[in-house]
Amino acid sequence: MDGDVARSQDPDVDVVVGVADVLAAQARLRRHLPATPLHYAERFGCWLKLENLQRTGSYKVRGALNALLAAHERGDTRTVITASAGNHAQGLAWAAYRLGVNAITVMPRGAPATKIAGVSHWGATVRLHGDSYDEAKAFACELARQNDYRLLSAFDDPDVIAGQGTVGLELAALAPDVVLVPIGGGGLASGVALALKSQGVRIIGAQVEGVDSMARALKGDERLIEPVASLADGVRVKEPGHLTRRLLAELLDDVVIVREAELRETLVRLALEEHVIAEGAGALALAAGRRVAGKRKCAVVSGGNLDAGVLATLLSEVRPRAPRRPRRRRREPTMTMSAQEPAIPSIRPTHSMTPPAKAARPRKIDEEVFA
């Protein structure tokens, strides 16, 4: 692979995704989705790409909308079904509503109530099944096979990856040297890497300890281990994508594993110090950024769909450490004293010193003339 194109590892499917697909996605989405803002978090020393302010509160709407628009161009009008922990389901529901497409979302029973309500709001059918994303995915696959629905992966789909890559295209104007991206199945990281890697930008992935299936897969560990419970429910993926894994193996520079306590503290600091509400996965990249050096680094705040009860609990339980005070910048002296030149002691006035004599009153002109 030449660094800008990836093919699926599935021998039965020949799928290609590259930079041209990301540019095509940008052209499709420009009419529907405005660019999200950038914010400099001075106390973190990091730029933030605020995808929590995106439609439906997450970057996921980019990939879902691009997939539906691309399918419309191909003449595919089938009902779309997907499995999601919440954000992809909301993005698909919104896109289907805008385009008049029938959509079904399968979500785990433990999905946040905020995300379930968001999907229902846009008129998509919600099916709750299983206790994890992978169980919901298996059920969605079965429904798609039985009813000839179009199964849309939350991350392992070329149109979805291309849509997520538009985040990277919007970051190009910032000219970052490092971009940090949360990783679940790998769709966002793959798209951003496709968009920015040719510009010499380092792409760093972020995962949570015990929810690190992609990091292990990139090291050759193919075991399917059940992810632990985490605040970052949006990245709790047991099996990463095949297409995304192939892309990230070529384009990703490193993966940082974040502890759960670090993630909770970062989320609270974001809310209190930067006034940015992020969900667990949304604060993950910034939490990883504390271990990554860069002159102009940027973390993607991938989503902000956080339950109010969870936020209230975090604010009451987590006491973040005070950030270090910035070092004062001292100006260089304008003149330097010679090493052989003796220092002149400073004289401070004291109460015992006599005041200076009063100056003589100047005489008037007539006194000088007629003296």
TrEMBL record:
Residues 32-301 form the Tryptophan synthase beta chain-like PALP domain. GO terms for molecular function: L-serine ammonia-lyase activity; threonine deaminase activity. Keywords: Lyase, Pyridoxal phosphate. Residues 320-366 are annotated as: Disordered. SUPFAM superfamilies: Tryptophan synthase beta subunit-like PLP-dependent enzymes. GO terms for biological process: isoleucine biosynthetic process; L-serine catabolic process; L-threonine catabolic process. The keyword Mitochondrion does not apply. The keyword Lyase applies. Pfam families: PALP. Its cofactor is pyridoxal 5'-phosphate. Residues 321-331 have a biased composition (Basic residues). Its EC number is 4.3.1.19. Belongs to the serine/threonine dehydratase family. NCBIfam families: PRK08813.1. This is Threonine dehydratase. It comes from Marilutibacter alkalisoli. The lineage of its organism: Bacteria, Pseudomonadati, Pseudomonadota, Gammaproteobacteria, Lysobacterales.
